[in-house]
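Checklist before submission:
- one chain only
- standard amino acids only
- sequence pasted in full

Submission:
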Amino acid sequence: MTRFFLTLPEAIGLLFQAVENSIGGETFVMNMPSFYIKDLAQVLIDHYGDESTTIEEIGAREGEKIDEILISEHEAEKSYVFDKNYFVILPSIKINKNYSYIERRLKVNFKEFSSSHNLKDNDYLKRLLVLGGFLK
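Returned file contents:
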């Protein structure tokens, strides 16, 4: 399984970005790195575990997704690159807002934004965990 990962400061930055730049109805999505869950477990074991710590893969539980999708194929059609860190999805329902500040930007060049794409390695994950305060 894969999952996106962001630190608390990045989550707060995403909120501020949306509050400061939206006019209403848009969805801001952070361009986040993603990782395999087993890699997250391995990095934590390498840091906190001992030689007896092992990983037991049990597979997906009923209803659990293998990958996260933050921008679906349907949403990608109305999604734009806000800057190097964020995407913006315009609303499906037309409301009385002028979104030209977004529509002047580049459209995204993917069919969906999934955690199965752009997977990072364990070293990158370890740096994020240190930055986020999860590894000391």
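Reviewer check: Residues 2-131 form a domain with the Rossmann fold fold (CATH 3.40.50.720).
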